[in-house]
Amino acid sequence: MEKTKKMRKSAFVVALLALALPAMAQTMVDDADGDGVYSLAEMQAAYPDLSEELFAELDADADGMISAEELAAAKQDGMIAE
């Protein structure tokens, strides 16, 4: 009986980890200078293969920075990895 409880608990933990790991694997962009937007350098720190051309595409308002909304839209549209 005790062995069955331990097996169920182990199975539960494994299932919980399986659900949590994809969320933890998301790419996080660090706003290093704390200005509330992401520069090309900050984006490239998280996405080393990000080109200046793709950065410009992500920058919907063409202000030279990526806002949180622009980053979320790029992820949602599959332009960059989550």
TrEMBL record:
UniProt keyword terms in alphabetical order: Signal
Chain ranges of the EF-hand domain: 46-81
InterPro entries: EF-hand-dom_pair, EF_Hand_1_Ca_BS, EF_hand_dom
Keyword Zinc-finger attributed: no
Signal peptide: 1-25
Organism domain of life: Bacteria
The keyword Signal is annotated on this UniProt entry: yes
Gene3D superfamilies the UniProt entry points to: EF-hand (1.10.238.10)
Pfam families assigned to the protein according to its UniProt record, in alphabetical order: EF-hand_5 (PF13202)
GO molecular function, a single term: calcium ion binding
Protein name per its UniProtKB record: EF hand
